[in-house]
Write a sequence for this structure.
């Protein structure tokens, strides 16, 4: 690892942590309805939204009503996206005359965007009209993120209220999350990104002449489409010269901003943030990368503030940060040290002033090793899933880390709202075990953790591994699943495992190398995404309801403090143990074998 | 049953033998189903047994010897868990049998009228109903739980308490309850039966001991949920390994897929069998330990709740101070001689059967030679003490003599239109400030003076309270004394707070107030006037010497009637939780080593490169898998003593305690299996078994 690389990582983390407090306290004020200029300024607009939709913002909900509102709202959102895709050929803002999307792909995408996963089985510029991108996908980017934030806020209210049966109003939480948090941040980020060169236009795709024409030879085809052969049986070749290229454009900046901020990750273009018009410069790269973790990090502070003890928020942020940093320092060196197979081919993998060195396969030269590997860790730590390099081409260990970060349940920062509520579920388990170890009925933030909370927390921790492992098993059992695997050996297995890990934890990034836009994978991954989102959100709301009904146990000398380094270690231990013990066998058959085989191959030579 | 006999039963060959038999009897599916974690092992054992039979017929994926070895150790795992439970139950069963021996059918002398000299008929003890009145004479057994309404007698309660010294039971006051199965040694008692057949204290004790394993406590239920969730995760991780391994074999083109035997072995090693196997033993043993301490809990839930107590309310008298207060001086007001005061005080105390009342009579006799007078012939009517008026006295020859707490007497005087002299307040305060109790004596609307009742704080009690404080428990002394007296004694005893001039309503209010704040309140008491507060408290320990009402209101009875026993009750409650928590952590931490043993072995033929993970350098794949399974089974046996004894609790604060236990059971749990599995592997190789 180079010192330049270290400096970039430290700078990134420092900026991220520095922003957590101001943004976190801003969000806490928004949710507590304290005046912070914008929510007074836009108050009439907010009130108008409630009037228009017939919502009484004063009327709070029981957890069951809250959950029903959430599910119905998400269902309608998913249906809207499905409808837009299925009818886009007849709808406006489709300059490329893209056809309607196939039902299985449309289902997959609708689920994917409603669940904040943003797995993309399709390629954006060749599939989605501008209208679908804007009205369908971008809208879901906002509201799926807001759904996660609303669920989190409801859970926090569960901790702060005593003997109450209501946990807030879903519509109000949604509206405030969108109007006062996601919209302003996205607006600012989109404008800056446009300044950096991210495209934002309704114009059709542009055809440009190439400055450097490309010449190559390709097999000559006969009238029947079969390659012609010469007398010796070799294919007949013809020279081709490419003079111009079609450049896909569109209203990208507005979607890219929220895609990063809302931990959505669904790219406007197929190659996501590796695309020069989606992520053109190192600065745009830094800002997009910062946006991934910005809200999840700040929400920790919001949590601390809302429960009346900011140390609780810092403790969770510390646990997340320690895990993130540790894994950054696994991935970046793994990529920097390169691939021994390339060395054998004489590829220069030593970092110098001219190049970043390391394993540059599948990476953009404008980002280099550090910003590609850092992005890979950050985007999988959060359930963002946008990519600026191809994870499939990472070294086995470099690829193992992003996969494992997802398998940890997307709680190392995780999705906006969902990451923190997932982490709080782990905290509940950690508190439970440690409470037993000190001989006291466990309590977290003054709320006793009993059988019901354990049951719900167990479900939220259980579902993603079941989905990931079960889905992967199904895919490698069935011919229809195996036929989509391009790479042989352990790497092919890693690709399937990665895809399911991504969908099963609502991340949405793709390893690649797997032809996932098939009816089988579209359906399998769609179902997995649905379960992993709502089978977690509903138990979390159930816990919120159960906790709100309890009284608050005052802190005494027998209370286990949950803001100390000891608790941070315990929380990290719980997350890592569950994550490691569940996935060790699967990872051993995928990336671990790949890594050992890679080393073995070199040793054999 | 006393402590020694219970302790001895740990190594009792009879109990061990019974437990062995019981371990096999518990192999029935109904029994196994109750413990989800062990049920998985049970099913796994059946599966490998089947695989072994198939292998014998030449249809096995593994050699039959290997499958047999795994199968035997899997059944061993199930049996060891059964054995742990059986041995814990064995101890309780021995106790139950002992208790039952006290519960023979006793012939009772049922009185026609509630008088000593009424006619009686002989009936079977089991036919007695609540409200019947019986006569019990020297040598008779007490036929059922009841309240003494006449007489004084010495009673041998060793059948219940294990304490051989006889105790005095008498009508009135706080020593009026008798328990069925005990024996009257001298004199006679007239007892009103208070429990219907099958509801008596002894019945409740036996039921408690026998059902200890069947009632899961709330924390146990929550832990079981966590264990089931972990089991499901591991089940998924191992079951999916089969298709993964098929794919791996197909794509790498070498080796054999993972065999079912190895999969079952891996699954059993990974699921938390250590805690799963010992979970119910820990609970049963916890109740057993309470009994060793001579505390009978009505439910495991109550024992567990004891570990969570934040506030402890203690009755001052008999708990914090030695026994009863004694009258030590008469302080007359100006214009009244001490002799006049003593005379009035003695008259007012004639019918007062409490030790305090008697001490007044005795003091008057010692100082001024007043003899007890035949009050009946004087035509006196006695006003008995009530919790509301908080005074007692006598109406005799037109005199109205009352004694009681200063404010009780004041309101009494003021009610009658008299005036309570404010300067008298000072005399009362002086007595109180000395830590003594001032008892004001009045006649009509005139105050005569004060009887000073001296209180002596028990030796060593201050250290006990300091210990409770370290546990995070706030102690509150409850007393009927006035604030000044209470404050003096509270300071001397080292309690955190006190409630003075406590009425039953005030006690109840205090408990409710703490509960509303979210605190868990424990209370010890013995008197009938404690009963409402005991019923309200989360953990209520009644003294066995106390009244029947108190015992029924409590959820634990201390047979030794030692109020500071609560410290040990709290410790036992905490130990139960800690033992479960520590073994859960240990169990999960063990999995790391087991992965390192089994994963390289399971895929030795498909991916030989994975041998890098064989950090323990186990001899062969077969020996690696077998060693892990054997370790997993033996660790249950090794931890039985810990499960039965419980982890020692030290009041060092939550964070330190957690840190210590994490180091021992978390880090220890990571390291121990590496050593254990390697050692077993070496032994297997040395013995030439693999």
């Amino acid at each position: 690892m180079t010192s330049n690389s270290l400096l970039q990582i430290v700078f990134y983390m420092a900026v991220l942590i520095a922003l957590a407090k101001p943004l976190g306290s801003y969000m806490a004020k928004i949710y507590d309805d304290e005046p912070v200029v914008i929510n007074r300024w836009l108050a009439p607009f907010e009130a108008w939204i409630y009037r228009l939709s017939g919502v009484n913002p004063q009327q709070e909900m029981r957890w069951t009503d809250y959950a029903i509102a959430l599910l119905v709202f998400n269902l309608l959102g998913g249906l809207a996206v499905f409808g837009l895709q299925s009818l886009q050929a007849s709808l406006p803002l489709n300059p490329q005359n893209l056809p309607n999307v196939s039902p299985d792909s449309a289902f997959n995408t609708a689920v994917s965007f409603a669940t904040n996963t943003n797995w993309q089985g399709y390629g954006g510029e060749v599939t989605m009209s501008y209208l679908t991108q804007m009205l369908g996908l971008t809208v879901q980017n906002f509201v799926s993120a807001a759904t996660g934030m609303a669920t989190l806020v409801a859970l926090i209210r569960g901790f702060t209220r005593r003997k109450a049966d209501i946990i807030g109003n879903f519509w109000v939480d949604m509206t405030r999350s969108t109007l006062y948090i996601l919209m302003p941040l996205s607006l600012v980020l989109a404008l800056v990104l446009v300044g950096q060169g991210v495209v934002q236009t309704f114009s059709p795709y542009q055809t440009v002449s190439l400055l450097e024409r490309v010449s190559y030879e390709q097999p000559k085809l006969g009238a029947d489409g079969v390659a012609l052969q010469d007398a010796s049986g070799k294919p007949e070749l013809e020279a081709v010269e490419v003079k111009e290229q079609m450049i896909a454009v569109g209203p990208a900046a507005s979607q890219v901003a929220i895609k990063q901020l809302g931990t959505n990750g669904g790219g406007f273009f197929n190659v996501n943030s590796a695309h020069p018009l989606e992520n053109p410069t190192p600065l745009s790269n830094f800002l997009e990368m910062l946006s991934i973790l910005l809200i999840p990090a700040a929400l920790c502070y919001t949590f601390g503030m809302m429960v009346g003890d900011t140390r609780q928020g810092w403790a969770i942020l510390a646990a997340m940060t320690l895990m993130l940093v540790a894994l950054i320092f696994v991935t970046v060196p793994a990529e920097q040290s390169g691939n021994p197979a390339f060395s054998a081919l004489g590829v220069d993998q030593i970092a110098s002033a001219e190049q970043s060195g390391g394993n540059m396969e599948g990476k953009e030269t404008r980002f280099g090793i550090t910003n590609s590997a850092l992005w890979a860790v950050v985007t999988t730590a959060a359930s963002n899933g946008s990519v600026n390099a191809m994870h499939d081409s990472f070294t086995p260990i470099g690829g193992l880390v992003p996969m494992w970060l997802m398998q940890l349940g997307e709680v190392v920062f995780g999705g906006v709202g969902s990451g923190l509520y997932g982490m709080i579920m782990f905290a509940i388990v950690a508190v439970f075990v440690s409470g037993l170890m000190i001989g006291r009925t466990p309590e977290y933030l003054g709320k006793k953790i009993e059988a019901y909370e354990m049951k719900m927390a167990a479900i939220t921790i259980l579902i993603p591994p079941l989905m990931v492992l079960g889905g992967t098993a199904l895919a490698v059992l069935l011919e229809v699943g195996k036929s989509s695997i391009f790479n042989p050996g352990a790497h092919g297995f890693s690709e399937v495992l990665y895809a399911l890990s991504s969908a099963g934890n609502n991340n949405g990034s793709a390893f690649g190398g797997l032809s996932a836009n098939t009816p089988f994978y579209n359906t399998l991954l769609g179902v997995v995404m649905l379960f992993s989102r709502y089978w977690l959100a509903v138990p979390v709301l159930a816990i919120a309801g159960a906790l709100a009904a309890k009284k608050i146990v005052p802190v005494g000398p027998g209370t286990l403090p949950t803001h100390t380094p000891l608790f941070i270690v315990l929380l990290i231990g719980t997350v890592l143990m569950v994550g490691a013990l569940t996935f060790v066998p699967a990872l051993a058959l995928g990336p671990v074998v790949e890594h050992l085989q890679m080393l073995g191959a070199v040793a054999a030579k | 049953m006393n402590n020694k006999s219970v302790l001895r039963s740990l190594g009792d060959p009879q109990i061990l033998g019974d437990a062995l038999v019981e371990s096999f009897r518990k192999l029935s599916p109904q029994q196994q189903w109750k413990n989800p974690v062990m049920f998985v092992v049970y099913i796994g054992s059946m599966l490998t047994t089947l695989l072994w039979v198939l292998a014998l017929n030449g249809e096995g994926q593994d050699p039959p010897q290997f499958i047999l070895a795994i199968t035997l150790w899997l059944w061993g795992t199930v049996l060891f868990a059964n054995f742990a439970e059986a041995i814990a139950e064995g101890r309780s069963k021995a106790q139950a049998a002992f208790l039952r021996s006290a519960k023979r059918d006793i012939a009772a002398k049922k009185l026609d009228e509630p008088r000593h000299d009424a006619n009686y008929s002989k009936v079977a003890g089991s036919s007695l109903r609540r409200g019947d009145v019986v006569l019990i004479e020297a040598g008779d057994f007490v036929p059922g739980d009841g309240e003494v309404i006449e007489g004084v007698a010495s009673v041998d309660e060793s059948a219940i308490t294990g304490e051989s010294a006889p105790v005095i039971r008498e009508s009135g006051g706080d020593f009026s309850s008798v328990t069925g199965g005990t024996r009257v040694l001298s004199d006679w008692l007239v007892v009103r039966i208070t429990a219907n057949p099958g509801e008596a204290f002894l019945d409740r004790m036996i039921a408690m001991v026998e059902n200890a394993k069947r009632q899961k406590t709330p924390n146990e239920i929550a832990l079981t949920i966590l264990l089931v969730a972990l089991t499901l995760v591991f089940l998924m991780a191992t079951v999916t390994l089969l298709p993964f391994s098929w794919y791996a074999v197909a794509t790498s083109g070498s080796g054999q897929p993972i065999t079912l035997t190895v999969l079952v072995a891996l699954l059993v090693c990974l699921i938390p069998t250590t805690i799963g196997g010992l979970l119910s033993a820990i609970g049963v043993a916890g109740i057993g330990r309470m009994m060793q301490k001579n505390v009978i809990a009505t439910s495991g839930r109550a024992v567990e709740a004891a570990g969570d107590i934040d506030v402890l309310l203690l009755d001052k008298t008999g708990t914090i101070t030695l026994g009863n207060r004694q009258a030590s001086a008469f302080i007359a007001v100006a214009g009244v001689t001490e002799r006049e005061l003593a005379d009035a005080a003695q008259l007012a105390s004639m019918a007062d059967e409490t030790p305090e009342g008697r001490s007044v009579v005795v003091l008057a006799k010692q100082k001024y030679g007043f003899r007890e007078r035949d009050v009946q012939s004087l035509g006196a009517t006695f006003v008995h003490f009530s919790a509301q008026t908080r005074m007692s006295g006598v109406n005799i020859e037109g005199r109205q003599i009352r004694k009681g707490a200063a404010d009780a007497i004041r309101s009494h005087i003021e009610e009658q239109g008299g005036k309570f002299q404010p300067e008298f307040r000072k005399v009362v305060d002086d007595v109180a400030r000395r830590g003594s109790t001032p008892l004001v004596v009045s006649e009509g609307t005139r105050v005569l003076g004060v009887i000073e009742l001296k209180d002596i704080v028990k030796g060593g009690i201050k250290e006990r309270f300091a210990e409770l404080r370290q546990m995070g428990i706030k102690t509150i002394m409850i007393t009927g004394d006035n604030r000044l007296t209470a404050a003096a004694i509270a300071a001397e005893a080292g309690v955190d707070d006190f409630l003075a001039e406590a009425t039953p309503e005030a006690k109840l209010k205090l408990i409710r107030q703490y509960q509303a704040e979210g605190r868990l309140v424990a209370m010890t008491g013995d008197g009938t006037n404690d009963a409402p507060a005991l019923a309200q408290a989360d953990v209520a320990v009644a003294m066995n010497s106390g009244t029947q009402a108190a015992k029924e209101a409590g959820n634990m009875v201390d047979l030794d009637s030692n109020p500071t026993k609560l410290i040990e009750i709290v410790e036992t409650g905490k130990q139960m939780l800690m033992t479960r928590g520590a073994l859960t952590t240990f169990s999960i931490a063990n999995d790391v080593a087991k992965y390192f043993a089994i994963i390289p072995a399971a895929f030795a033929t498909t991916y030989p490169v994975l041998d890098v993970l064989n950090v323990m350098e186990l001899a062969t794949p077969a020996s690696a898998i077998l060693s892990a399974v054997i370790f997993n089974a033996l660790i249950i046996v090794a931890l039985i003593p810990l499960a039965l004894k419980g982890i020692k609790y030290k009041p060092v604060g939550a964070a330190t305690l957690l840190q210590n236990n994490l180091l021992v059971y978390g880090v220890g749990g990571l390291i121990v299996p590496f050593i254990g599995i390697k050692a077993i592997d070496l032994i297997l190789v040395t013995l030439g078994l693999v």
About this structure: Residues 1-9 of chain B have pLDDT under 50 and may be disordered. The longest strand of chain B covers residues 446-454. Chain B touches chain A through 78 residues (CB under 8 Å).
